[in-house]
């Protein structure tokens, strides 16, 4: 069964140019999430079962990841010395570096908010290395990160104790994989 699924996924990744519909149907079918947070107790000790109420309750415990309004970050302006440094030590992210990094992705990690599985990125590394290297380079030069890469899915993860207590959950942010790849490449290049 496992081999058949691996074979199917490999064929879908190889034929992505010719069979886009099949590829996106399969990837969409894998994006389904399950309800993993059961009923929670609110401040007065009543069980909360509605998703919206559970969300509000958990947001009260995770104020750092839940804001009323998401504000896009303003690009930072460089000082004169920083501009001189950036011109002297220009960063260059090559297509080969991106391809190499994508081909070494650990495929057993979670998908980000874009829903793209790491195995797919790994399989199509040769095709997307050039466009990604251009995006990374422009992003670095402008000092801006694409808006989609700033989004994250905050997931409550149960730690220990009673599952009904919202205080026994911690928040984990799942961020975009291309954004993480860019961060790691820039760190590699500047260090």
UniProtKB/TrEMBL annotation:
- Specify the domain of life of the species encoding this protein: Eukaryota
Keyword Signal part of the UniProt annotation: no
**A Gene Ontology MF term for this entry?**
RNA-directed DNA polymerase activity
Answer whether the UniProt record assigns the keyword Transferase to this protein. yes
Q: Name one GO biological process term.
A: larval heart development
Which Gene Ontology CC terms are recorded?
A: extracellular matrix
Q: Sorted alphabetically, which keywords does the UniProt record give?
A: Nucleotidyltransferase, RNA-directed DNA polymerase, Transferase
Q: Please give the name of this protein.
A: Rna-directed dna polymerase from mobile element jockey-like
């Amino acid at each position: 069964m496992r081999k058949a699924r691996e074979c199917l996924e490999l064929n879908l990744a190889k034929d992505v140019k010719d069979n886009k519909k099949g590829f996106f149907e399969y990837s969409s079918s894998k994006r389904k999430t399950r309800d993993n947070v059961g009923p929670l107790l609110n401040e007065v000790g009543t069980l909360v079962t509605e998703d919206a109420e559970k969300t509000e309750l958990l947001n009260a415990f995770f104020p750092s990841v839940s804001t009323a309004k998401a504000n896009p970050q303003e690009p930072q302006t460089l000082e004169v010395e920083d501009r001189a440094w950036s011109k002297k030590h220009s960063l260059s992210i090559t297509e080969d570096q991106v391809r190499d990094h994508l081909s070494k992705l650990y495929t057993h990690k979670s998908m980000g908010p874009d829903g793209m599985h790491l195995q797919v990125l790994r399989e199509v590394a040769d095709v997307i290395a050039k466009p990604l290297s251009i995006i990374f380079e422009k992003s670095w030069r402008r000092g801006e990160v694409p808006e989609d890469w700033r989004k994250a899915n905050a997931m409550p993860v149960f730690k220990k104790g009673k599952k009904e207590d919202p205080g026994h959950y911690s928040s984990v942010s799942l961020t975009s994989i291309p954004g993480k790849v860019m961060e790691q490449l820039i760190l590699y290049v500047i260090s």
